[in-house]
Amino acid sequence: MTRGPVRIDLRMTGYGALACGTLVLGVLVAVPVLLLFGVAELSVMALAHMPVITLGALALAGAVLVPTALVKHWRGYGAAGAVLASFMFGAILWVWSLAFTYDEWGLLAVIVGLVLLGVGIVPVATLAALLTGAWNTLALFGVLALAAWACRLLATRLAASAGADMQRRLFGGRTRPGEEQDAATIEGTFTERD
């Protein structure tokens, strides 16, 4: 005797569904808040070491990027290194901004800053530094932002230079294949149509 598929009804109704939905919603809200609180506490622990980390990152970027920018065949690697240095300075700025905002104004200001597309924590930290008179922190925020911007600009210039050098090596000084053809050769390749 063959039986059909067994169906089990797992629908919740009434107060059980309400309680389960409330529990799921609570977990969905609590997990990001707890993660944010943990990240904020961890960044506050690193706050005391941020000036040393920043100066070390600047020294490392200078020691690595200057030689690669000076040697013609290494400029492509220098461009990649400059992009990575830019991300490093941006990450340090973001974590430092998060920690400073949390330390000065609390978790609510951090949430407001993160709601502004995640990047808004930097302007909130800058405002906190201005209003609390933390001029050294404000100056280091500026140095990090300038370093990130300068590394992006350097990466663009190095990549353009490396690309032009690659074209010269591949095409023997021409910018495109066939560029050395004279006008008579070019005229002979065209045909007229009626």
TrEMBL record:
What are the start and end residues of every segment in region (Disordered)?
A: 172-194
State which residue ranges cross the membrane: 12-40, 46-70, 77-99, 105-131, 138-160
Sorted alphabetically, the keyword list is: Membrane, Transmembrane, Transmembrane helix
Does this entry carry the keyword Membrane?
Answer: yes
What is the protein name stated in its UniProt record?
Uncharacterized protein
The answer on whether this UniProt entry bears the keyword Membrane reads yes
